[in-house]
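Form 7-S
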Amino acid sequence: MEFVLLLCLLSSLVFTPAYSNDWLSHGGNLLNRRFGEKETKISPETVSKLRLKWKFEAGRDITATPSVFKGRVYFPSWDGYLYAVKQSDGSLIWKQNLQQLTGINSTRVIFNVNVTASRTTPTIADELLIIGISGPAFVVAVKLSNGELVWSTQLDDHPAACITMSGTYYNGNFYVGTSSQEEEVSIEQCCTFRGSLVKLNAKTGKILWQTFMLPDNFGNRGEYAGAAIWGSSPPIDVTRNLVYIATGNLYSAPQNITDCQERQNNQTQVAPTHSDECVEPDNHSDSFLALDLDTGNIKWFHQLGGYDVWFFACNNLSVPDCPPGPNPDADFGEAPMMLTIYVNGTTKDIVAAVQKSGFVWALDRDDGNIIWSTVRYLTPYHNIIWSIVLVVKTMITLGFKW
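Output:
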């Protein structure tokens, strides 16, 4: 079976290097819009003329969006390699085996993957390429020129922790969230992982701050766990000196919180617009957050999932000791997008993201208040992750069954 990276170009055009169209991270820029502002050749009228320019074969799937910089394309594969190929013809420039390069052994938290691998878009950081490992939770920096290792830093030593978010580089620093596969273990083992956002010095890999999304559980089961930060890349608001994120669901909650849910007769809304007495202020699951770039302090947050303790094993209703429902698995599988809109004749700066429940939320960048919301899907298991993109003045979402 072939696993390939494909490049399609207009058959009527001659390829020339276009460094102005570099793609430096998953989101494309600090706004996380995934919109090629400088792309002028591909349009609804010309898209039918796209033809295969080249293909590159890897040992396994290539699922990350490639990054592109100065005529080179960078991407990881599930075969455990990090690749650099020529943008012009797809020929190999270099490849590095992540396990051999770093000495990091896979924790095998991703099913059917027994090598050290990455699923994230590599981030261009001056002369470096920075990428996260899909277990254990390391971030690795290599030289753009040859893939030589510069540094590697472990962000979380939890055995199920991993990096699935593609980070953002700004002003000499790298911002990325931590995730895990702990919700897929047996219910008897669940759960202690806590999601966090981390700022690193891009040159050295030193952790400058780390902000957790839940209270410390001190490694004890039966407390708060979950709230992973696991999709796309976090946008940077230079004017406000903020970074924005959106978080995942809980894996577990304290007994007093599950008791609260049962007292409410499991009435948590899929998309609450009111406060939920079962959601404590320091529970930042299913939330938008704005964090100060310098300190990592939370400036504002808005919880949008209510009580949501989702665990894979509990899809089987016969499993004992599962938390009370409805547990809609309503986490955010992507970081917010930064936009400016017009409201009653005035401009308003917002962040927008789509929840796996199908709801689209737009929040005020200054205080986190809801500007508007709408629903895209409300069908079981028709979730939306990694899929929001800005096209001119329209946000497009693509459903993904998970």
